[in-house]
Write a structure and sequence with these properties.
The protein has 219 residues and is α/β, with parallel strands linked by helices. It is built from 9 helices and 7 strands. The protein binds S-adenosylmethionine (SAM). S-adenosylmethionine binds next to β2, β4 and α4.
């Protein structure tokens, strides 16, 4: 069974011809994409041999031997097929951005990119906007930790994001208890930072923004 995190990512995949699961590791998402007929063909890449073998094993266990290719590759550097969708999940924002920037032309041609970063979300949102990738959806789940994923579509121009969206994404617009819980945890993190650095104007400003939005939710 897919984890809550991978189920969330799967639910964001738009039907396409060729999807690449970049850094597929165990290959659970890649397999679920094929089994749910969200892509006609899937390419699983990984930088390392061992994870790619895990992916192959996952497919073999499920008796799926067609419409899947395994490519040992840094990002999509060794992928020669035209891709419609790129999924880059379970990594840090720096690595996700490195993978996108090193093959920017290829990523710009895709219909959809899905990211799920474990670190530095505001930085990822900002850099993607500067590259011209418009964030069209965000989702959150909690499975021990909070996991947040974004769906992007390339536009031919830089995307403007206001400070709120850069820092808290589209989650602010989602009226779910889980988002409220997430925002409370963000508030606690900001308060912790401010305990140690009480005059940080940036964090004071973010905390005030967040408090306003939290109050709106309660009232
Ligand atoms: C933590 S796992 C995440 C696996 C899966 N994407 C997920 O979300 O569950 C990260 C995987 O990315 C691979 N990886 C790291 N750097 C990579 C790169 N530059 N290109 C392709 N794969 C990479 C690692 O080998 C590892 O298998």
């Amino acid at each position: 069974m897919l984890s809550k995190r991978l189920s969330m990512i799967l639910s964001m995949v738009e039907p396409c011809d060729v999807l690449c699961d970049v850094g597929s590791d165990h290959g659970y998402l890649a397999l679920a994409v094929l089994q749910n007929r969200l892509a006609k063909d899937v390419i699983a890449t990984d930088l390392r041999h061992q994870p790619l073998l895990h992916t192959q094993q996952t497919f073999a266990n499920a008796n799926v031997f067609e419409h899947i290719s395994y490519v040992l590759s840094d990002g999509i550097q060794q992928v020669n097929t035209k891709l419609n969708t790129g999924v880059i999940c379970g990594m840090g924002s720096d690595l996700i951005l490195k993978i996108i920037k090193q093959d920017l032309g290829h990523f710009k041609m895709m219909s959809q990119i899905i990211t799920q970063a474990n670190t530095k979300l505001p930085y990822l949102r900002k850099e993607m906007a500067l590259l011209g990738f418009e964030m069209t959806q965000e989702k959150i789940v909690k499975d021990g930790f909070f996991y947040i994923a974004q769906s992007y579509h390339y536009k031919d121009h830089m995307i403007e994001l206001n400070e709120e969206t850069l820092n808290f994404g589209y989650l602010l617009n989602i009226q779910e208890d889980l988002v409220y819980e997430y925002l409370l945890s963000e508030k606690a993190s900001l308060e912790f930072i401010l305990d140690n650095n009480p005059h940080s104007t940036k964090h004071l400003h973010l905390l005030s923004l967040l408090k306003t939005r939290l109050d709106e939710r309660v009232n």
